[in-house]
Amino acid sequence: MESEQRLLRWVVRHVGIKDEYAFSDYLHECKESGDYGTKNERGDYTRDEMIAKAKEYKELYEADEEGDE
Amino acid sequence: MTATIESLGFTTAGSDGPDESLATLLLDFLKSQPFLFARVIYGDELTLHFGDEVPPKLPRPGKEPAVPLRSRGTHILRLLTSWWLVAGGGHVVGYLPKTPQPLGKPIAVKDAEQTVPIAVGSTVRSVSPIYSPTPLGLFQVGTRLGLSDGSSIDILPRQRESGEAASEELPDWELQLPGGKRLEVGPGEEFKVTA
């Protein structure tokens, strides 16, 4: 649990996600819909998989916010 | 017989722990904010949503996400550590991953959304700290929120294994606030408000 949270926070910073909560919820919903990761038997995402999901999320929800600040 | 948090090594307000400015800050942030719902997010992390319900963010025009986002509250309590939810009538649900003796029947985090024993619309009436002394004489800090329906939310301080280092990157729990502001608590006695 803590290791997943640590990885998620690292990915948020690495990819530049602005809304960490929304991204966490997006990842959870992806898993719930059957898009499991390959990291372990619980279906958690590997670092590279999570980075890919973060870029996917950013393109969907935050791309228009680039340059807003 | 149900154990108490004191019998598990936690201490509550009135101990020699950190000052109560954290409780004052929390009460200031959460008072009058109604409870909305509980939600599990990635990493088996329970979130409790208060305040006004915010519609989910929409994808960019022309983009179709595989899964939609969900609505949220304006005030989100993220429980990255152990927690215990107690209804006014005594019904208890909780998550204590590393505490050997449970306070009652623990539940899986994924079931918390359906079993949270807090009435929708209840507001936070009181806040008091919960502490967990560490071998080095420092404290891990949790809190007890008392709600208007008689229920309570105990955020139990993380009890680390002997020799286990605290994560330098993660607080033990946090409260997300409108405008991107965030109250982060832990590890240890530290807490801070970030923008």
Description:
The complex is a heterodimer of chains A (69) and B (195). Chain A is mainly α. Chain A contains three helices and no strands. In chain A, helix 1 (2-15) packs across helix 3 (47-62). Chain A is globular. The model of chain A has no long low-confidence stretch (mean pLDDT 89). By secondary structure, chain B is mostly beta strands. A six-stranded antiparallel β-sheet of chain B has the order 1-7-8-9-5-6. A six-stranded antiparallel β-sheet of chain B has the order 2-3-4-10-11-12. The A-B interface holds A 1-2, 4-6, 8-10, 19, 21-22, 24-33, 35, 59-61, 63-64 and B 39-45, 47, 57, 59-60, 63, 65-70, 72, 76, 78, 80, 97, 167, 169-170, 176.
Task: Name some characteristics of this structure.
heterodimer; A: 69 residues; mainly alpha; globular; B: 195 residues; mainly beta; six-stranded antiparallel sheet; 2 helices; 12 strands; 7% helix; 37% strand
| Helical percentage of chain A | 55-70%
Instruction: Describe the oligomeric state of these chains in a short phrase.
Output: heterodimer
For the largest beta-sheet of chain B, the strand count, sense and barrel status come to: 6 strands, antiparallel
Number of strands of chain B: 12
- Summarize the main sheet of chain A: none
Q: What's the number of helices of chain B? A: 2
Q: Pairing-aware structural class of the strands and helices of chain B?
A: mainly beta
Element order of chain A: H for helix, E for strand: HHH
End-to-end Cα distance of chain B, whole Å, is 45 Å
Rg result of chain B: 17 Å
| Percent of residues in beta strands of chain B | 35-45%
What is the strand content of chain A? Answer: under 5%
What are the secondary-structure elements of chain B, in order, as H or E? EHEEEEEHEEEEEE
Helix content of chain B: under 10%
Query: Could you report the average pLDDT of chain A, rounded to the nearest whole number?
Result: 89
Could you say which overall geometry of chain B the principal axes of the C-alpha atoms support?
A: globular
Count of DSSP E strands of chain A? 0
